[in-house]
Amino acid sequence: MNQVRLLLDCDTGIDDALALAYLSSCEHVQMEVVTSTPGNVDARQVASNNRALLALCGKSDIPVLIGAREPLEIPLVTTPETHGPQGVGYATLPAPATPASMDLDAIDFWIEAARRTPGELTVLLTAPLTNFALALRREPRLPWLLRKVVIMGGAFYYQGNTTPTAEWNTHVDPHAAKEVFAAYTAAAEQGLDSSKLPIVCSLDTTERFEMQPDFLTKLSIEAGCAEPEIVQASDSEGTLSKSSNPLVRYLSDALRFYFEFHRQYDQGYIAHVHDFFAAGVAAGTLDYETRPATVDVETDSPLLFGTTVADFRGLWGKPANAHVVVANNPEAGFAELVQRLGALARKLNENS
User: Fold this and answer.
1) Is 21 exposed, middle or buried (0-12, 13-18, 19+ CB in 10 A)?
2) 310 has which bridge partners?
3) Nearest to 58 by CA among 21, 33, 90
4) Is the pLDDT of residue 99 over 70?
């Protein structure tokens, strides 16, 4: 596949962790940096999670940086009930030997990298858009300098997962999301090629990636584990994996927490792995379809705070500022995930 040079910004997060492990398994993806935005947990914990998981995946050479420590205008709200107090469910990893760099600012890194290699970098945003909004403030030419931008966030013709209408990433920092889409509206008015508009993976299509517990069984078999990993709804809450494979064990313990969370909210013993789908879009490994739209975010109404609105018909009289994903293929996506992660888990076991 064509090489993808990637800047990943995340708030790890169980599904962020799955996406990060998946990207680590893609040989054609070169992660230039992993930047840490506050969201599911605070920025320092996000960075710690990122560094530890990269080390587990054999990618400890990738820089892990921190940018913003809080949303642009509102207090930070984290979600331990969804992702656990440390952001990765029941999973634990030793503290990484190399801490996140505190000397380099994530936003400065992005801007310098984009200026140095115009048209080569893909940005994947699976967190609130705080860091990206700040980067656009400092370098308004970023839409022209980047190759592609993929955003996991928003909900359009779909119920929100934080309020009845708002998705989590957007609700954590709606002012940042509003700034990002406004910047792309301005860029479109200045002639930005439509291929450079952000691809938006909203709940409308990410929640189609509904993981069942047997995914972990398939993964363990693909990884060559001596014993298949079995996770069942009848297990006691908090049951920990006994897998001999460290990556299988980590993902099993993280995802079990996610299965239990979704069941608590009457969605079944499943997990919506939003960020994996967005990662596949950025990596060019998953199929999808999009529609152009003009996207905006509500930041004033208490009732609709953080709600994303997409104008697909040009009723606002503004140019499209995004490509909203409207179709994807979860069955093929999960097959891809098992194959790639299984190969990585087998390789890590052989090298340990």
Assistant:
1) buried
2) 295
3) 21
4) no
Pairing of strands 210-211, 199-201: unpaired
Instruction: Give pLDDT, residue 351.
Output: 77
Closest among 61, 57, 138 to 105, alpha carbons compared: 138
Which residues face 296 on adjacent strands? Answer: 309
Mean pLDDT across 331-337: 98
Place of tokens 């699976």: 126
Q: Counting every residue, how long is the chain?
A: 352
Give the pLDDT confidence score for residue 100 in this predicted structure. 56
Secondary structure (DSSP) of 9-60: EE---HHHHHHHHHHHH-TTEEEEEEEE-SSSS-HHHHHHHHHHHHHHTT-T
Burial class (CB in 10 A: 0-12, 13-18, 19+), 303: exposed
- End-to-end Cα distance, the chain: 28
Q: Is the pLDDT of residue 93 over 90?
A: no
Burial of 170 (0-12, 13-18, 19+ CB in 10 A): buried
127-149 residue pLDDT tens? 999 999 999 999 999 999 999 99
* DSSP SS3 for 290: strand
Residue for token pair 């996000």: 46
